[in-house]
Amino acid sequence: MEHAPIPATPTDSAASPSSTSAPRAARDPRKAEFEANKLTKRLQRQVGEAIADFAMIEPGDHVMVCLSGGKDSYGLLDILLALQKRAPIPFTLVAVNLDQKQPGFPEHVLPEYLESRGIDFRIAEQDTYSVVKRLVPEGATMCSLCSRLRRGVLYRVARELGATRIALGHHRDDLMATFFLNLFFGGKLKTMPPKLVSDNGEHVVIRPLAYVRERDLAAYATLKQFPLIPCSLCGSQENLQRKQIGIMLRDWEKKHPGRLDSIFHALGRVEHTHLLDRTLQDFAAIRATGTPDAGGDIAFDVDPALEAAADAVAEPPLQGIKIDHPATRPDAHHPRP
Question: Looking at the predicted structure, is the pLDDT value of residue 333 above 60?
Fold first, then answer.
């Protein structure tokens, strides 16, 4: 079922509040309010577009929002609550947190926050912390086992609540980092899909923040003053490859503005006939047809559009010459920025 985007407020912008503008905004309340409204509208627009583009939510869905206490899941819940009020389709929300019995976990924070906002919620208690600490050697990555244990508990809770959707707080940066983790270490072209069926076949999992930048979620958490809870289990593992990939991506964005946009757009513009996967393309069946194909491959030459785009990054284009960047062509079909 295809839906129109869930409407946000009409005006938005692609820019995010910068740290350099914060002092000026603090001195000028009108500036601060303008920037806050712009950020809120942009996030609501991007989440609404992602929900519509990937048909994440159907009429009557009961959406279980997984709330960890971090900035991403807080932002996801807050934005979905705002969109729910003016969505063209009816759906309900329930927030679920898994108390993994980590030492020092402030178990009162989330219930107090959710009760103060009148949000339906459930706290599931399962001591996965001690299991992970017992089974994973000191210094080794805990993420795989931790996420597997957590996933099983959340599937059970979703079943008990009658949830038809499980919403996770992974954002655009997470999708790109996962792509490079698979590329560098898994030997696969793969990332986190915005919508999928769970591995046990029982649930539909959605990622409404798929179009949202992490830096915007961080700014939104500051704006909303969410009572953030740090993860003492994995938050101290600074050498995780995912964190190293994140550093690499931020460095690229700093040195080569627009590169991450191009990478993200590429995730939605896959030309499987131009890869080497024999399960997707029957290479043995390829035959010359004798009929010209405007979209066919250029066998002996480089792609002129690709070369022009690459040259445009290295050197400014000649005056009066427009570079047709393949990621920004009007006919390009790719995820929205």
Answer: no
DSSP secondary structure code for residue 107 in this structure = T
Q: Is 194 helix (H, G, I), strand (E, B) or coil?
A: coil
Distance of alpha carbon 125 from alpha carbon 156, whole angstroms: 12
Tell me the pLDDT band of 299, cut-offs 50, 70 and 90.
low
Whether residue 330 is predicted with pLDDT greater than 60 in this model: the reply is: no
Residue 122 one-letter amino acid? R
DSSP for 114-140, written as a single string: HHHTT--EEEEE--HHHHHHHHSPTTS
Q: How far is CA 115 from CA 10, 112, 119, in A?
A: 31, 5, 6
Rg of the chain over Cα atoms, rounded to whole angstroms, equals 22
What distance in Å separates the CA atoms of residue 8 and residue 44, rounded to the nearest whole number?
6
Tokens of 95: 């927030």
Complete edge-to-edge strand list for the sheet that includes strand 121-125: 121-125, 92-99, 62-66, 165-167, 204-206, 195-197
Q: Is the pLDDT of residue 106 over 80?
A: yes
What confidence tens digit (pLDDT) does each residue in 234-247 have?
555 555 788 899 99
Handedness of CA 210, 214, 215, 216 (dihedral sign): positive
Smallest CA-to-CA distance from 233 within 333, 163, 128 is with 128
CA distance 227 to 260: 30
Give the per-residue pLDDT at 4.
53
Helix locations, the chain, DSSP H: 22-27, 29-53, 71-84, 109-116, 128-135, 143-161, 172-181, 214-224, 241-255, 259-266, 304-314
How is 208-274 classified by DSSP, letter by letter? TTTT--HHHHHHHHHHHT------TTTTT-TT-HHHHHHHHHHHHHHHSTTHHHHHHHHTT---GGG
